[in-house]
Amino acid sequence: xxxxxxxxxxxxxxxxxxxxxxxxxxxxxxxxxxxxxxxxxxxxxxxxxxxxxxxxxxxxxxxxxxxxxxxxxxxxxxxxxxxxxxxxxxxxxxxxxxxxxxxxxxxxxxxxxxxxxxxxxxxxxxxxxxxxxxxxxxxxxxxxxxxxxxxxxxxxxxxxxxxxxxxxxxxxxxxxxxxxxxxxxxxxxxxxxxxxxxxxxxxxxxxxxxxxxxxxxxxxxxxxxxxxxxxxxxxxxxxxxxxxxxxxxxxxxxxxxxxxxxxxxxxxxxxxxxxxxxxxxxxxxxxxxxxxxxxxxxxxx
Amino acid sequence: xxxxxxxxxxxxxxxxxxxxxxxxxxxxxxxxxxxxxxxxxxxxxxxxxxxxxxxxxxxxxxxxxxxxxxxxxxxxxxx
Lengths: 301, 79
What we know:
By secondary structure, chain A is an alpha/beta fold. Chain A is 49% helix and 17% strand.
């Protein structure tokens, strides 16, 4: 259930409130889970569906081409007249005609059902029986009137302690040295999915070496084996930092020319994390910070 | 300026259609014979305007193969 999940405390409170208020109102608001990849949107949606005691249909919106296809393949066979929770994942990829239909369907103002005419058919949405949830990494791409009909729940990055707990929960039989857990969590970039992946890597390492203890030297060896860098930096980020250290301030165009990556790719794949961690700054040009230089020293790059 | 040709265009009073008694046509073509008529006219007398399917050429056959239905990807979590 929701409370068994680690982190996202504020979000958990809101979900608990909606569960409680359903007893009075009969309905759950149309929820939109908003957050970066790997923060647990799907996991929280699944746990919430369990709380509501209903099966959950998880739909990848990028595979829906038209509203007609949705009604034919999903609504009629799996939603109509059923008790179910529906999660529209990657909601920013919903086709336009379905978004337009949703504008009407979800314009309910507390009503418990809505009849929607589509072509020659008429479909009834029963909001006491069916809970609609959406998830996206790109809330800004949603049609604003549609976004206004949804209740947005924001996910936040996980703290080091929370990430450590997520890993320990996944491999509870592994005994970690106190110091190693902080080291590991520092490479996870606040991401729960990365914590799960790292836990599975550690499990494989321990199983291969037939051990249940994991200390700092094991971690150093695993980092070497899997090319895990301090702070979870990837090769592109390190390349950009090195360039800024060696050449001084650079324009985005210059970074693009030297790395051979497009400007968009640099902004999307490297700069966001470097800026977030304070390893670089933008002041007209791109600069490496003292913190960035120290990080490079630590990496020996 | 070019001189206007006197034999240009449709002669005055000429039409594409002629009137003929149905029995005369039947005599000529028989009951199973087919005739070409305007869709509008057919519609106006309350008949189905969908003409019989044209003879399929190999090209048509390739084009008319049923399209693969694109399926929406979804997972049902029951646990």
